Amino acid sequence: MFTLSKPEIRQLLSAINLRSPFGQRDYLLIMFLFQTGLRVGECSGLIVTHVATRDGNSRQRLQLPAFICKGSRGRVIVLNQTARACVEKLLAFNRSRGFSVAPAAPLFQNRKHGPLSVRSIQKLIKGYREAADLDVCATPHSFRHSHASELLAAGATLPAVQSLLGHRNIASTQAYVHVSDAQLTEAAALIG
């Protein structure tokens, strides 16, 4: 699996027409996937109450219930400032388009007011990857890998990343980590 660099993510996002009916939703979806490292099924299963308070403000933490997580193990994800902004902008988008923002409403909604399916999310990201003419594979899962690599590059420990990703085995987390050329050069300089 490939990771996406920040310039590649920006290139992908630049392919989204924010004036199209669902352009803003799609932009926020991709940003949210990258900022949280959620699995595509977890993102598809989110409802408003998971990420927002009754007054429409983003929660500080996303408490993923076990029933939408792989392996039926819930976990807590701290939402950074960008992820919280995505939530608030998405709720405003939903409100402005006549979509429900009730606690039980899907966070990411399709044209019929239902949740965006896993397959729909995969297809829309594939379409934007093609429109952006990216040479690398961009899938919902590659955002998860990119998120994990960014966390480690920022100084997070492997056990912390393991917990955030919801992995039982640290070997699973290690498979997500991709070291950049700059990180390899820096590591080599430490011993040279």
Q: Helix/strand/pairing class, anyone?
A: mainly alpha
Count of strand segments: 2
Unreliable spans: none
The end-to-end span amounts to 31 Å
Indicate the CATH class: Mainly Alpha
Fraction of helical residues = 40-55%
Computed over alpha carbons, the radius of gyration is 17 Å
User: What series of H and E elements makes up the topology?
Assistant: HHHHEEHHHHHH
CATH fold name: hpI Integrase, Chain A
For the record, the count of structural domains works out to 1
Order of neighbouring strands in the sheet with most strands: 1-2
Question: What amount of the residues lies in strands?
Answer: under 5%
Identify the overall geometry: globular
Lay out the secondary structure.
Elements: H1 6-14, H2 23-36, H3 40-44, H4 48-51, E1 61-64, E2 75-78, H5 81-96, H6 118-132, H7 140-153, H8 158-165, H9 170-176, H10 181-191
Antiparallel strand pairs: 1-2
Helix pairs in contact: 1-6, 2-5, 2-7, 8-9
Short description:
The protein has helices spanning 6-14, 23-36, 40-44, 48-51, 81-96, 118-132, 140-153, 158-165, 170-176, 181-191; strands at 61-64, 75-78. It is mainly alpha-helical.
